[in-house]
TrEMBL record:
The gene is intS_2. This is Putative prophage CPS-53 integrase. Residues 95-176 form the Core-binding (CB) domain. The lineage of its organism: Bacteria, Pseudomonadati, Pseudomonadota, Alphaproteobacteria, Hyphomicrobiales. It comes from Roseibium alexandrii. Belongs to the 'phage' integrase family. CDD domains: INT_P4_C. Residues 200-377 form the Tyr recombinase domain. Gene3D superfamilies: 1.10.150.130, Integrase, DNA-binding domain, Intergrase catalytic core. Keywords: DNA integration, DNA recombination, DNA-binding.
């Protein structure tokens, strides 16, 4: 059985571990030092875990008293957490999903997540899931969440619907860890949403056609900011989200390095992009008209990056709709660089393709750096050569 002395002296370990009391009551010691009272029980064939609070705010005596009440209910075939809701727990009405969302977003901000991540989560949770905000957290069931997700799905936004289910689940798991939710009802909705067909990004992978495209970009008379973003996309073959959310503090123009933070990467690993001389010049030109922490910002709202469709809309206006997208420059570079006999490994690292091995993933940013620098400059020079060819040579 537990004692106050044993709990106080309990040391943290690399992984969470349990210290048992009796009849299913235990304290969970987590790596961060928190010590949480829990009660595992089974009722109506379903296993559940009830939280009684964190030690020492919740004393051993208090936890045992709460546990005894719950244990008596389980013995009668009743769910203590359901009974608690019916009994009118004061936290039931005041701790709403909206309040939990606000704390979840604040926690992401405290973890210094990228602004892109914060904005995406705010949009999903505060806009798309707003009908859940006034509901008490513990009252929400899968049947409450499903219509919210389906309303997004009916608009044809399959990927957003899938992300919404996932982020709602993350909020509930955040609540469970803090004793504010009993489980994750969104978990039951796995497979309830249609899967999105894989979309391939149109891309030009032939040199003459790429030369014509580059001439069109350099002749573009629309937004100078979007034109510059397209030039950087062509020279650096970065993902569109990396270009859009590029900030001045990501750039070291003196050393010619663009450091993409982990939150903008699929695998949450920092990626360094070697900058060719031409890209450095484009960035310097943008710095002369700087109005924001973002390099490529919206003219009417300088505190925001250019929109997700800005570069693709510009390409469409140039006549490249369904022919080439801003993401397509990655395919262009990958295909043409291969033809020019650059090593596959160097190309893969430069494109920052996903690495399944977590140990190797952390070291990839340093591998073949000199070769990547050389290839980055070679690619930019090739782009300039293709762009400067006479028109009849590109037909």
């Amino acid at each position: 059985m537990l004692t106050d002395t044993a709990i106080r002296k309990a040391q943290t370990r690399e992984k969470p571990y349990k210290m048992a009391d009796k009849n299913g009551l235990y304290i969970l010691v987590k790596p961060n030092g928190s010590k949480l009272f829990r009660y595992d029980y089974k009722v109506h064939g379903r296993r559940r875990t009830q939280s009684f609070g964190q030690y020492p705010k919740t004393t051993l005596k208090m936890a045992r008293e709460q546990h005894q009440t719950s244990w008596d209910l389980v013995a009668k075939g009743l769910d203590p957490m359901a009974s608690k809701l019916k009994a009118g727990d004061p936290d039931f009405e005041t701790d709403t999903f909206g309040a939990l969302v606000a704390d979840y977003i604040a926690n992401l901000k405290a973890e210094k997540r990228a602004e892109a991540t914060l904005n995406k989560n705010r949009w999903l949770l505060q806009d798309l899931a707003k009908t859940l905000h006034d509901k008490p957290v513990r009252s929400i069931k899968a049947s409450d969440i499903l219509p919210v997700i389906q309303s997004v799905e009916r608009q044809g936004k399959i990927e957003s619907a899938q992300r919404l289910r996932g982020i709602i689940g993350s909020v509930f798991r955040f609540g469970v860890a803090r004793g504010r939710a009993d489980d994750d009802p969104a978990q039951a909705l796995r497979g309830a949403i249609r899967t999105k067909k894989v979309r391939h990004h149109p891309a030009i992978v032939e040199e003459k056609q790429l030369g014509r495209l580059l001439r069109s970009i350099w002749a573009y008379e629309g937004s100078a900011t979007i034109a510059a973003a397209l030039k950087i996309s062509a020279y650096c073959y970065a993902r569109p989200v990396e270009t859009r959310y590029c900030r001045w503090d990501h750039l070291d123009l003196q050393e010619a390095i663009w450091t993409v933070p982990a939150d903008l990467k699929k695998m949450r690993v920092v990626h360094d992009i070697p900058l060719c001389k031409q890209a450095v010049q484009v960035f310097r030109e943008m710095h002369e008209i700087r109005q924001s922490d973002f390099v490529f910002y919206q003219l009417r709202k300088p505190d925001r990056p250019i929109s997700e469709n800005a570069m693709n809309s510009a390409l469409a206006n140039m006549g490249y709709k369904d022919i080439h997208t801003s993401h397509g420059f990655r395919a262009s570079a990958g295909s043409i660089l291969t033809k020019h006999k650059y090593a596959d490994k160097v190309i893969e690292l430069s494109l920052s393709h996903l690495e399944k091995d977590e140990t190797r993933r952390a070291y990839r940013r340093y591998e073949f750096w000199d070769e990547r620098v050389e290839m980055a400059q070679g690619w930019a020079d090739l782009c300039d050569n293709l762009r400067s060819r006479k028109l009849h040579e590109l037909i």
